[in-house]
Design a protein that fits this description.
311 residues, mainly alpha
């Protein structure tokens, strides 16, 4: 069990690990850790930096890592989470619209039957219904629950279930009626995981350079999606599509591109491009010596700028 440390002790610990306080003074770092962020979260971004190896006089210390870099990465990550949450909500809404529209055009469905079939087969223990009913005390769902429970039409149920259950419901409908509401399910699982991560304010950029597990391979649909961007060479595509962080961002962009209407996604891509070219590079000098971060940034900028330039 690790010992609890005071803020002053944490700063001493960071200095022992080779973290400098040139961009941000120790006093400013102390204030930041006390009022704006906490050590466990801030220190997570250190994994984007290498340590001196065995035999070096500074063995085990981080190379070229300043507290200011950690602070800046945590701030960029916060802004990125806000962007991603908005995108995930847009995707979720678009899927709901597509599902309800598909049901409305199906002469064999009244909107109640599919819910009855789904719950009977996929929820025999009534977990979904119990979870829905648990929200009855909330201000935003109680009227719908009071009016329809337990016999929900699909256009009501989608407003009361989680994103994961929405994906499951769509998959059930696709299988029953041979429709294609969903993309490959694993793509939407990535969106679900991203949505959950940003909703809980988890770090996204703490391991930006981490390689994908050996047991996993980039999906050919996504590699082809990137292959169509002329500014990205084959070697860069191979390199960054095998990194978990950039692969997940590309997955998000691909799914967003598939589901969201043209006007809305055009505005989103312009907003993302503005974010990448302005806020992200506000302190670009902090990262000049970290080629891994710079290379990843260049790759994602090319992807996003390509999307924002489309007519």
């Amino acid at each position: 069990m690790k010992k609890k440390l005071t803020t002053d002790e944490l700063i001493t610990h960071m200095k022992e690990k080779g973290i400098t306080f040139n961009k941000i003074s120790e006093e400013a770092a102390r204030e930041f850790l006390s009022h704006h962020n906490y050590y466990l979260k801030l220190s997570a971004y250190r994994f984007n930096y290498s340590k001196y190896g065995s035999g070096h006089e500074r063995e085990g210390e981080y190379q070229g890592l300043d507290f200011g870099y950690l602070k800046e990465l945590s701030t960029i990550d916060m802004h990125l989470r806000y962007q991603i949450m908005e995108m995930c909500l847009d995707i979720e809404h678009a899927i709901k619209v597509r599902l309800i529209d598909t049901v409305s055009q199906n002469p064999n469905e009244d909107g109640y039957n599919i819910v009855k079939l789904y719950l009977k087969k996929e929820d025999p223990q009534f977990k979904i219904l119990r979870n829905v009913n648990s929200h009855k005390s909330g201000e935003y769902c109680k009227d719908l629950i009071d009016k329809y429970y337990p016999f929900f039409p699909i256009w009501v149920l989608v407003e009361l279930i989680s994103f994961g259950d929405l994906i499951h419901l769509c998959a059930f409908y696709d299988k029953k009626y041979n429709t294609e509401i969903l993309l490959k399910n694993k793509f939407l699982n990535t969106i679900r995981d991203l949505r959950n991560a940003v909703a809980h304010s988890n770090c996204l950029m703490n391991k930006m350079t981490e390689q994908m597990e050996d047991s996993k391979q980039p999906d050919s649909i996504l590699t082809t999606y990137i292959k169509n961007i002329s500014s990205i060479s084959k070697s860069r595509r191979t390199k960054y599509m095998n990194r978990t962080f950039s692969y997940n961002i590309v997955t998000l962009l691909y799914v967003y591109d598939h589901y969201v209407p043209l006007t809305a996604k055009k505005k989103r891509y312009e907003k993302l491009s503005e974010f990448m070219h302005n806020r992200v590079v506000r302190h670009k000098d902090y990262f000049f010596n970290n080629g891994k971060i710079c290379g990843l940034y260049d790759f994602l900028v090319d992807v996003i700028d390509n999307l924002s330039s489309k007519e």
